[in-house]
Amino acid sequence: MFLESILASHEGxxxxxxxxxSSPAGVVRTIVAFANTSGGILVIGVDDKTxxxxxxxxxxxxxxxxxxxxxxxxxxxxxxxxxxxxxRHTQIISVxxxxxxxxxxxxxxxxxxxxxxxxxxxSNRRADAALIADLNRQVRSESYxxxxxxxxxxxxxxxxxxxxxxxxxxxxxxxxxxxxxxIAKHQNKTVPTIGGVLLFxxxxxxxxxxxxxxxxxxxGTDRSKIADSVLLHSHLIxxxxxxxxxxxxxxxxxxxxxxxxxxxxxxxxxxAIREALINSVVxxxxxxxxxxxxxxxxDDRIEFENPGLLPFGLTVDDIRRGVSKLRNRAIGRVFHxxxxxxQWGSGVQRMIGACQDAGLKExxxxxxxxxxxxxxxxxxEREPQVDDLDRTIIDFLVGGTGRSTNEIAxxxxxxxxxxxTRLASLVERxxxxxxxxxxxxxxxxxxxxxxxx
Length: 453
What we know:
Elements: H1 2-7, E1 15-18, H2 24-36, E2 40-44, H3 59-73, E3 74-75, E4 81-87, E5 90-97, E6 106-107, H4 111-114, E7 117-120, E8 123-126, H5 129-139, H6 159-166, H7 174-179, E9 183-186, E10 189-192, H8 194-200, H9 204-207, E11 213-218, E12 226-232, H10 236-250, E13 253-258, E14 261-266, H11 270-282, E15 293-297, E16 301-307, H12 316-320, H13 329-337, H14 347-357, E17 364-368, E18 371-377, H15 388-397, H16 405-412, H17 416-428, E19 432-435, E20 445-448
Parallel strand pairs: 1-2, 11-15
Antiparallel strand pairs: 2-5, 3-6, 4-5, 7-8, 9-10, 11-12, 13-14, 15-16, 16-18, 17-18, 19-20
């Protein structure tokens, strides 16, 4: 049963096939890359191109040889789970490698600077100095953005900008910057952290020249013709708002006839767009250089791409299930305090749920090189999922200037609390929009996104 399920899968981040041990160097690189990244299974005795099971002629000898190769070639010492698995009239070797707490592992003869490998898709990539440093930080449970910047003083933080952003939440005090790890104590001095400079640094672009957002609208489905673009160099939270405004300018609004009335709706729910963009900013690897966060709008999709692989130890399937490991804890802490993110790890699931409820094709999550990309598709596979009560609320809101929670509760004959929960779901799916100074505004009202024409 084990091999049947493996053979039904394709080589990828956590799976590789090898015909035999004739090229031990490739086997060692794969084992090192698995241990340094998210673990994986290496199957020896299966042709990697055809997936034909050739088997291993002397499985016990092969197993012993493999144990010796791993022991002699990899440092720190690694002990994968090696098993002989019967298959019809032959046998294969299964090597299960777990994400290692002793990473980064390297190939001894190549040394710790050039012999560290990570898994990117179905290939093994030599880690550069920045990736090796990231591996070390994650083993020590350190966050890059919480590290102090001792060459700067706390005056490097623009307290005015930070205070204005928090104005709708609470009055920001200097002690809050310490709690949020925007500043830190270092050798009897108060200095900014990397996260503090990234979010509120006065001279942020000089210290982190790639910490900005590039957005573009392309004609067609590739990058051959660009119709519009914008370079967003504001502080990151402001750049998010500016980028959403750019997306709203270019996202198609589709029309449909419902009950003899024409109504418009966004091709992709704005909550899904918001989650994808915020995810890109919060999880970007700002230690990398050479590329900003990129948002690309095509005729059939929107791509959100940020520098940085998934945190080591996680796979795309983990992310889909809501498993999360926040790369930038200081930035995440600020976004949470501002209400931009809720529970850590829930954003991707909300994004997927919003697209599913809107009847759209499921978002695609993938690692591209050393970047992570989220793709939202315009393709609608079915009508949005709304029940009779949802439809009553939407019809009640169409054509008006906004209704209060109490008005809606009276209309549908439900309690205020139950109505608020129902409205939150409609807002999350992009079918209803809130109007107010904040989500806590007691006078906020609701309008339908599907507006009569």
